[in-house]
Amino acid sequence: MHFLLVGLALVFGGVLRLGSVPVEGNWATRWQLALNRLILPPLLLLTTSGAVLWMGMDGAMLGFSAGWIGYLFAIAFLGFALLTLFYRTGQGWRSAQQVRRYPCESVAQTNGYLLETDIPFAAQVGFWRSKLVISRGLLNQLNDEQLEAVLTHEQAHAHYRDTFWFFWLGWLGQLTFWLPQTEVLWQELLLLRELRADAWAAQRVDAIVVAESLLQIVQNTQTQFATVQAGFNADLTVNRLEERVEALLSSTDRIESQLESQKRSWFWLGLGLLPLLTLPLHV
């Protein structure tokens, strides 16, 4: 019976990942669809495995014996989840410690850690209380107005705690890397995260200046802070660049309305807890 529960979670997660990922339309709708399809499969597997582990190999459920195949799968999956979490946490902790070794300077009335490289780079690095990291190349390449736009964008990431939430989303996505659309959904959430930060910045500085700054540092920058960073030009492909610039050149009213429409109910997360309801059925 435990194997059947695990199989149902696997089938449901696979079906949920089928179909193409919408890349047009309202940001809030795209966010909810991508978020649901990314995290519900691993949540179901986590809660199902936890319920199976709690019930154990002995006993029966609905007249069927518990069985050991599903129980071993539950142990293996939960072990993989814990090891993955420890590994990602270690990476993030090392990155945060490395940042503290950089000199701290005040740039445009904002404190940040200075990275000595000619590559233009700006990002929030860390977990709940992220730190701003900027490069020497960024300071040399942008004028004061453009630099303010980039720093305002990074303030948006700090405001929304993007490094913290995307650490957990990345962990959940990594647990089901073998399911279809995992990478596509992850990239969609990253893009929507940057669109939200751009919109937040566009409400406080000139949106055209934000777009100009984006175009000026268009090159894709890879850093050692990948697991716990939210950067201005992180993983910036041509398609992402076009959508971000187009959104920045749209009217402010449109940007504000899309931000407000992102406040949706999270009741669907209860679906991921449904396997826990099977606990009373085990005898």
How would you name the oligomeric state of the polypeptide chains in this document? Answer: single chain
Number of helices: 10
Largest sheet: 5 strands, mixed
- The neighbouring-strand order within the major sheet is 3-4-6-5-7
User: How far do the termini sit from each other?
Assistant: 12 Å
Any overview of this molecule?
The protein is an alpha+beta fold and 283 residues long. It has one domain. It contains 10 helices and 7 strands. It has a 5-stranded mixed sheet. Strands 1-2 form a two-stranded antiparallel sheet. Helix 1 packs across helix 3 and helix 5 packs across helix 8. About 4% of the residues have low confidence.
Indicate the topology.
Layout: H1 2-16, H2 27-55, E1 60-61, E2 64-65, H3 69-100, E3 104-107, E4 110-115, E5 122-125, E6 131-135, H4 136-141, H5 144-159, H6 162-175, H7 182-202, H8 207-216, E7 229-231, H9 238-248, H10 252-260
Parallel strand pairs: 4-6
Antiparallel strand pairs: 1-2, 3-4, 5-6, 5-7
Helix pairs in contact: 1-2, 1-3, 2-3, 2-6, 2-7, 3-6, 5-7, 5-8, 6-7, 7-9, 8-9
